[in-house]
Design goal:
heterodimer, A: alpha/beta, Rossmann fold, six-stranded parallel beta sheet, 6 strands, elongated, B: mainly alpha
């Protein structure tokens, strides 16, 4: 067996471990071991790469790996559960940038080889050789800057609101055309300027595609960019003729795309609408008009405590407001107090509550809320009719009845939690503003609804104190 | 490896990727996305190869060196974050985890 054979064998086993790892990640019981398997696969692929023939610079490789490991490890260990989505986005961006640099390096290496021969390179050969590299650069660059903007939006460094400017789509189209022209220039001219231009335009495209998208759609955006990096890895694998990169990259590209579709389905939105923007703007105008007769009914924490303390069944609907306020532990405390009083407490988890699908599950899991108490939308919806209180904490669009009734609403058709079917509804909300989608919520004006204004953490502290003193 | 063989692998991997996660519960969407994110850190391999074969070419060396750092960030950060998310699920699978503090 040659060293190449051993590497190839390592790649094969690594690819299998990635596949089984992904498979195991799809079920709660096996998920953690699945992640471990994938990590082992990665280590194996890395080991296999070290023994490839004609490799050198080992000291530099190890140094670079150490430099990358330390901040990666520390960031990942320290980040709060609420900040997970942007962390995933950040690491995704690093992968994209990595693909960009590798593709650029491969392109340059290829050019150097060509420069050695005296013949001019025919365009068709240049195209065939460069194609994967150029594609890798474009995908890598888009996911690099796109992910950074998504990170910035979720971290509060960049405005969460959709940023819009005149001729937005035209600019995007021009950028795409510009990238094509630069790609054409690269293969016909083989000069570095074109290649740099290509990378810069793609980086710009990443920024401009994500800026106009609002906070509500970030889960979808991160998922799209995740599969984008997967594709970048795959095409870079083509460029380097590396099997493990092709397989792992494609797996992620495909799985990520499916995940994106699943998310869009949960929100009843088309991917095109997310990417080209449709929330905000239009809907806001009608919200203010013609609703003068609607009043919000406020309630004191003490009264809420009585309603819930003497209820038989309470369903808690957590939303992003809960995550921002870091109030997941308080919710669990309230839940335990109520259970001690004999109240049945359950959680209704909307598929897109929070910023990423499953975000709420992760948060509540962190606070030790028992897994069986978290119910998916389909399971919990029939139970609202028997619930005495639906407690909505920092959620808005996922309980908006306009999704059922108002055909003009941008969220029309999105499946929602039937909070309005509960006997009483309590809404904990920071202010009177609208949700991410920028749509007025009729549920808040419902005769059964009481509003408890305030930061989720403070409101829940008051509420638990009141329940204790009952 | 011939170009056609690579395309075969590419196409089959697409189907595998879709098939393998087609029945994932919503609960696991975030960890799954994060896990997939770690797996595309495989670009690290590309970075290692670029750096390993760069010899003493300063441009390739620099590009490769940066690529390895970025790829490592993706891999390490991705797997650790995913593990942290999943650790919580595990703690709560049994019914009585309440008093365990």
């Amino acid at each position: 067996m040659t060293r190449t054979d051993i590497s190839e064998a390592a790649y094969l086993i690594a690819s299998l471990l990635f596949i089984f790892g992904l498979k195991r990640l799809s079920s709660p019981r096996t998920a953690r071991s699945g992640n471990m398997m994938a990590a082992v696969g990665m280590a194996l692929a890395l080991g296999g790469t070290f023994i490839l023939p004609e490799m050198g610079n080992f000291a530099a490789i190890i140094l670079a790996i150490v430099i990358g490991t330390i901040p990666g490890w520390r960031l990942a260990k320290r980040v709060k559960m609420t900040a997970m989505p942007q962390m995933v986005s950040l690491f995704n961006g690093m992968g994209g940038a990595c693909a960009l640099f590798i593709s650029l390096a491969e392109e340059l290496r290829w050019r150097d080889e060509m420069a050695g021969s005296s013949h001019a390179v025919p365009v068709n050969i240049a195209l065939a050789e460069s194609f994967p590299m150029l594609l890798g650069m474009v995908f890598g660059a888009i996911s690099f800057t796109g992910s950074l903007i998504a990170f910035g939006k979720l971290q509060g460094l960049v405005s969460e609101k959709p940023l819009r400017w005149p001729g937005q789509r035209l600019v995007s189209v021009l950028l795409v055309l510009g990238i094509l022209v630069a790609a054409g220039g690269t293969v016909t001219d083989l000069s570095l300027i074109w290649t740099i231009l290509l990378a810069v335009l793609a980086l710009l495209l990443g920024v401009l595609q994500v800026l106009p998208i609002g906070g509500a759609d970030m889960p979808v955006v991160i998922s799209v960019l995740n599969s984008c990096t997967g594709l970048a890895a795959a095409v870079t694998g083509f460029a380097m003729k590396n099997m493990s990169m092709i397989i792992a990259g494609t797996l992620v590209g495909a799985a990520g795309s499916l995940l994106t579709v699943l998310m869009c389905k949960a929100m009843n939105r088309s991917l095109a609408k997310v990417i080209f923007g449709s929330f905000g703007g239009a809907a806001k105008g009608q919200a203010g008009a013609g609703q003068a007769d609607k009043t919000l009914r406020e309630i004191a924490a003490s009264e809420c405590a009585i309603m819930m303390g003497y209820a038989r069944k309470v369903i808690i609907i957590p939303g992003y407001g809960l995550a921002v306020a870091q109030a997941q532990h308080l919710v669990h405390e309230l839940d335990e107090l109520l259970e001690k009083r004999g109240v049945e407490v359950k959680y209704a988890i909307h598929p897109v509550a929070g910023r990423m699908p499953g975000h709420m599950n992760v948060l509540l899991a962190e606070a030790d809320v028992p897994y069986p108490k978290l119910l998916d939308m389909e399971e919990i919806n029939p139970e609202f009719e028997q619930a005495d209180v639906a407690l909505i904490i920092g959620a808005n669009d996922v309980v908006n009845p306009a999704a059922r009734t108002d055909q003009g609403s941008p969220i029309f058709g999105m499946p929602i939690l039937n909070a309005d079917k509960a006997k009483n509804i309590i809404v904990i909300k920071r202010g009177r503003g609208t949700g991410f989608a920028g749509i007025e919520n009729d549920l808040f004006f419902n005769i059964k609804t009481r509003m408890l204004f305030g930061d989720a953490k403070k409101a829940l502290q008051e509420l638990t104190a009141e329940v204790k003193s009952l | 490896m011939s170009g056609l063989a690579m395309i075969y692998i590419f196409v089959l991997a697409i189907f595998t990727g879709v098939e393998v996660i087609s029945r994932v519960p919503t609960v696991l969407h975030t960890p799954l996305m994060s896990g997939a994110n770690a797996i595309h850190g495989i670009v690290l391999i590309g970075g290692v190869i670029v750096l390993g074969k760069a010899g003493d070419d300063p441009v390739l060396f620099t590009l490769g060196f940066i690529a390895v750092i970025l790829g490592t960030l993706n891999v390490v950060g991705g797997f650790v974050v995913t593990d942290r998310m999943l650790e919580m699920f595990k703690a709560k699978a049994p019914d009585k985890s309440k008093d365990a503090k």
